[in-house]
Amino acid sequence: MSREKKRELALFQANDMDAAARHFEKMETKGWRLEGIDSWGYHYRRVQPGQARYTAACFPDASVYDPAPTEGQETYIDYCRAAGWELAGAFGPMQYFRAVRPDPVPIETDEAVKLTAIRRTMRKTLIPSCGAGLLIAILYLVPQVSSFRIDPLGYFGWDMHLSLLLLMAGLTLYSVGLLADHGIWVLRSKRSVEGGGACVKPHTRLRRAAAAGLLVLTTACLALMCRDVMVRRIGSAMAVYLVFYGLVILSAGWVLKWIKGRSASRGAVRVKYFAFAIGCGVLTMFVVVVAVLVFSGGGQREPAEVYVKEYPGGETIQWNIYRDSLPVTLEDLGYPVTEEDHCTYEADIRRSFLASHEKYRQRAMASGSDLPELEYTVTRISWDWLREICWERFLEKNLDPELWPLRELAPAPWGALEAYRQDDLPRYYLLYPDRVVTLNLWSEASQQEIEAVLRPLLS
Description:
- The chain is of the alpha+beta class.
- It has helices spanning 17-29, 71-82, 111-124, 126-150, 159-194, 204-225, 229-233, 235-260, 266-295, 384-398, 447-458, and strands at residues 5-9, 32-37, 41-46, 54-58, 85-91, 94-99, 305-310, 316-321, 343-351, 355-364, 374-381, 406-409, 418-422, 427-431, 436-440.
- A hairpin with a 3-residue loop joins strand 2 and strand 3.
- Helix 3 (111-124) packs antiparallel against helix 5 (159-194), helix 5 packs antiparallel against helix 6 (204-225) and helix 8 (235-260) packs antiparallel against helix 9.
- The termini are far apart.
């Protein structure tokens, strides 16, 4: 049994409307007739395949928030009907008409008026949407720069960071590209019209290809994000969030239609719809927090043991004990570690397609333990220039002459390109041709112990 109705995403801009009209004519030959347009795209119903003429026009005074056609819009539709055209579908300023007689009178005959109408329509459609895309990218970039400055070595080990950076870069290029393409089209069309010609043809196929490319990039970034260790840790909560967010997006068009049916003016529709959007944003954040706490335990992994530590005065505190595998442990260095020390062995490993960041720590949680704390990291970054940037930012972050003086060491004994030590902590920072190693040791650590810790990290 064949379908009687069909939907199609809208990928045409206001100055692509002639191309859209040709598209609707092709759909008619396939047996699909345009019967409406909404925020999601075009609605078709099945008819007998045949020939039909379509034309398009911009009515800039119309808005997607109009609860009904305005008086001016109704007058324009009546004028088009008298010229042999019926309204096939409209959404905001963009109007599509289908011929109801063999020789309809052309609607748009003055190219200067057509250019002005398209420009006014694009100011209400393309420019705000591209501006919103750029704003989203900027608002995301600001905290990401802060995150990089705080953790320059670990930042690129997150697939989530890289996938969102790629997505925001794609969104920025797409938005800037559309704006630039529109600006060039306006200049060329204006020159053509002033010379007595018609508006130039826009780059419809290129725009549609760019939109498809952004969709593919979004899908790839979501797949990449799912590889991230933190996303996997809160996978159930992420699934709840995506389902809820998808329902919000799918319901947006229906809600707008519902509001328009119960409002008397454009302003009332706009206020109510914006209130709905803000409410959905707040509710989505609430759902995320609740989902993480309920379904994913706050994003925390399950410990091997919970140790209750008692302090003088009767105060107690719980510590999570982990038993992760470490490249080198205090036991490997000859320290006697017993169950009474309640040692936690923690490995925080992040790997992306660009870098890996491994942080290891062994620490005795028991109050009376004399064991030192062992902590070290290994960072591998594929691109040499990016590794240098991260290294320089890392040194800058840790360089505080008053609190923690940073002393440069001779790199040759370490087999490194550069070597530094913060004497008061003490910490060692070592740059190698393919990795960065940091050691956070105890003040009494001998050279033999340092070499024993470093050896497996360089193998």
